[in-house]
Amino acid sequence: MGDSAPPGGTAVPLAGLAAGAVVALLVGVFGKVHQPTLAGTTTLGFQTVIDMKVVLSVAIGLLAVLQILGALWMYGKLGVRAPSWLGTAHRISGAVAFVLIVVVAYHCLWALGLQTGTLAARVPVAPRAVIHGLLGCATIGALVVKVVAVRSRRSPGWFLPVAGGLLFTLLIAVVMTSAVWYIGAQGWPGSGG
User: Which residues lie across from 124 on neighbouring strands?
Assistant: First the structure.
């Protein structure tokens, strides 16, 4: 009676978080047990799979920034009225980001797997690679949480911005531990360092 919470209360966020956690765990398990191989991957015209992943990851990072700015604008947090086309542009750029994330994640998992501890030749794996892999798994889980938040009509009002903020934070961390690190160490793909 005095409860102003929408139908579902915390059930939808809890279900979304549980689904995201399960997906992140399954992605991590697959990445760990899968024997990494470059077979079955594509470069989409780039010289190497790594070059493709770096460029697409930079695009994902830029789209993530546009997504957060668009959301802030649509919800009146920038102090300027949002144009009518912004909602459509936000959904389209989100869908493009989703597809790019799936492409990069597939190539990361298939080509490299989830690197932890040491490689087969007892070569230690760089801590950055371990952190990046774990963040990547968490990002895929957060993507599931965000999809649940966007698609649910019964979730509380706080769930979508929290899910979006979580996904944004993880995406930026993944891009920083992959593409930004690579560009700092090797230069822009194809530029010769």
Answer: 118
Decide: 73 and 82 in contact? Cβ < 8 Å: yes
Q: How far apart are CA 163 and CA 145, in angstroms?
A: 6
Ordered by start, the domain boundaries in the chain are 46-186
Can you tell me the distance from the alpha carbon of 178 to that of 128, in angstroms, rounded to the nearest whole number? 9
CA atoms within a 13 Å half-sphere pointing along the CA-CB vector of 164: 22
- Whole-prediction pTM: 0.88
Q: Along the 193 residues of the chain, how does pLDDT read in single tens digits? A: 444 444 558 999 999 999 999 999 999 999 999 888 866 688 899 998 899 999 999 999 999 999 999 999 999 999 999 999 999 999 999 999 999 999 999 999 888 888 876 655 566 778 898 899 999 999 999 999 999 999 999 999 999 999 999 999 999 999 999 999 999 999 999 876 5
Which pair of structure tokens corresponds to residue 99?
């597809």
> Amino acid letter at 70?
G
Cα separation values, 180 from 38, 81, 135, 137, Å: 22, 33, 15, 18
